[in-house]
Every structure is written in structure tokens, then in C-alpha cells.
Design brief:
single chain; alpha+beta; 4 helices; 3 strands; elongated
Length: 83
């Protein structure tokens, strides 16, 4: 059996240039979208390197937290987490 790889129609240089040229714009759009990030926490589980928080209405978009962020979140919202 022989596999044929299709030729690349986009050069690697043009992909890198696109990313670098629009880096600031993409960052700004992402930050503005996450600034209004409100939702109901479904669960917090341990992940490979830290912790993963699942939001009820965004199950396919986990929020990753390091150890420090996890402890600060638990301290700040201890009453709400116990509910």
C-alpha cells in the first residue's frame, strides 16, 4: 500500500508571517472575550501538571490553573465551593 502526500499549497513562511503579523490583534480579541468570562463551576479536578476547572456551560473549554491559583481560588471561594 502506498500513501501519497498532497503538496502543500501554503508555504511555511507565509503561515509564520500571518501569525506574527496578527499576534497582537488575536491576543486582544482573546482577552476581550475572556474578560466577561462568567459561568457556574461544575468541577475542579487534578490534571497532568496542575488543576482543571470545568464550567457548566463550557464543558469543552477547561480552565487550567497552576497550584498557586488553585489554592487562592479555594481560599477566596471556600463558602461557595462547600455548597
Amino acid at each position: 500500500m502506498r500513501f501519497i502526500t498532497p503538496p502543500l499549497s501554503i508555504r511555511k513562511e507565509s503561515i509564520e508571517a500571518f501569525k506574527l503579523n496578527q499576534r497582537d490583534e488575536l491576543t486582544q480579541r482573546r482577552l476581550s472575550a475572556l474578560n466577561s468570562f462568567v459561568g457556574e463551576m461544575k468541577e475542579i479536578t487534578s490534571a497532568r501538571f496542575a488543576y482543571k476547572m470545568i464550567i457548566k456551560h463550557l464543558p469543552d473549554f477547561p480552565v487550567m490553573m497552576n497550584e498557586d491559583m488553585y489554592h487562592r481560588l479555594c481560599n477566596r471561594f471556600s463558602v461557595e465551593i462547600e455548597l
